[in-house]
Specification:
Distance between the termini: 10 Å
Largest sheet: 3 strands, antiparallel
Strand content: over 45%
Radius of gyration: 14 Å
Helix content: 10-25%
Number of strands: 3
Order of helices and strands: EHEE
CATH superfamily: Flavin-binding protein dodecin
Shape: elongated
Strand order of the largest sheet: 1-3-2
CATH class: Alpha Beta
């Protein structure tokens, strides 16, 4: 029997959405093993001086519990 757990994280990047996702997964991967997948639940931008300054993503990350 396999058991999985899902955690929710928020990650950001000044570059783009893909970089925000990659950096979030990389950071979680430093302490969580067995990551199987993730769902992008929400995206947001931060605007400064009428320009996109930061991309933020909220993700549900699923991993296998040993």
């Amino acid at each position: 029997m396999t058991v999985a757990k899902t955690i929710e994280i928020v990650s950001s990047s000044p570059k783009d959405i893909e970089d925000a996702v990659q950096s979030g997964i990389a950071k979680v991967g430093e302490t969580v093993k067995g990551i199987e997948g993730a769902w992008i639940k929400d995206t947001k931008i931060v605007v400064r001086d009428n320009r996109v300054a930061e991309w933020r993503v909220t993700m549900a990350v699923t991993f296998i519990v040993a």
